[in-house]
Amino acid sequence: MKIDPIHQFNIEPLFTLGHIGNHTIAFTNSSLYMFVAVLLIALLMLASGRDLVPGRLQSVAEISYEFVASTIRSTAGSEGMKFFPLIFSLFMFLCVSNLVGVIPYTFTIASHLIVTAALALLVFFTVLIYGVYKNGLKFFSIFVPHGVPIYILPLVMFIEILSFFLRPVSHSVRLFANMLAGHIALKVFAGFVAMLGFSLGALGWVGGVLPLALTVALYALELLVAFLQAYVFAILTCIYLNDAIHPGH
Amino acid sequence: MAESHGEAKGQAAGAHTEAEGGHHGGAFPPFDSSNYASQLVSLAIAFVALYLIVSRIALPRVGGTIDARQNKIEGDLAEAQKLKDESDAALKAYETELANARANAQAIGNETREKLNAASEAERKALEEKLAAKLADAEKQIATTRTNAMSNVRGIAADAAGAIVQQLAGVTPDANAVNSAVDASLKG
Description:
The complex is a heterodimer of chains A (249) and B (188). Chain A contains seven helices and two strands, in the order ββααααααα. Chain A has one domain (7-245). In chain A, α4 runs parallel beside α7 (209-245). Chain A is mainly α and 249 residues long. In chain A, β1 (13-20) and β2 (23-28) form a beta hairpin. The radius of gyration of chain A is 22 Å and the shape is globular. In chain B, 83% of the residues lie in helices and 0% in strands. The model of chain B is unreliable at 1-25 (pLDDT under 50). Chain B has 188 residues and is an all-alpha fold. Chain B has a domain at 148-187. Chain B has three helices and no strands.
């Protein structure tokens, strides 16, 4: 039996939507899971009740709301609530799609760098445009830290500017690499179980207990990572937006 | 995973420029640039749809529910506080009223007691005076009666003395002498 841990990341076009230039725009399995995530979020947020005493589904919807709202308030202040819909969309989109992606035989949207890069660039340009729009040239004072001796200021400024423009890279690669590596590891360990069983017979099935236990443990870890990386992406977005809102800090 | 790092980097960098699509048949899927356009279009549609749903409908809806609950809780707490204040005030009023009533009752009791004491004292005094007067009268009467009785005793004594003298001596004594002798004897 051949184990291919990369197969799960394949993009399978389901049908062709049209062409832009010489690019074929297809509705792929990735597209399908993007819309599944949107649909699940819409269901969670819209189909839950509006009771005074919330039920389970309504509690989940309200906890998500409060969770994102308190994250924004604590990192970007109450002015950051302007970006509540954006951050909520980002967090829920990544969290739901990552959690769906941990289910076997599904596709994980965030395991493709192009998706995480697009979202990271969306955040980057939102920060840049809003920062300049709100603070004018004062926005660029984030590159000049306070209390730095004048003789090392050019070096510090260079590092600050470099790190600012590298933000979308770290922002997107962190999420992408975590999802990719986690899913590969999961697939490899799960593959060991089958491989041992098919190649060594009864002894192999007994020996497969160890990788099976590891798979279970890794699966639990991946569930945590799925949520955590969505949260990290959202909180980094808040921190970057905080620069645009309060460039003095 | 037969993919060189440099090639992967190049494709990632070309994501937003005009990357040439439709090659790299067996490439590592996340770095296969032929899929980028499809994914970006889907992502844009899906994320814009999500953003619109979230910002227009979902967040106002859930936020409204949470605010309504918060307002209800605050309103109920304020109501409870108001009722508590009212009951505290009522309790205070009741206690003052009770203290007043108690003080009044005490005052009335004291007054009545004093009045009654004074009345009984006066009555007692009047009675004592009356009794004292009666006693004095009685004593006077006793004294008169005694004097009268004493004077009768003198007459009887004089008569008896005269009769005794006549019986003993056979002589009727002079009345005056008998009287003076009786007087002297009575005084003695």
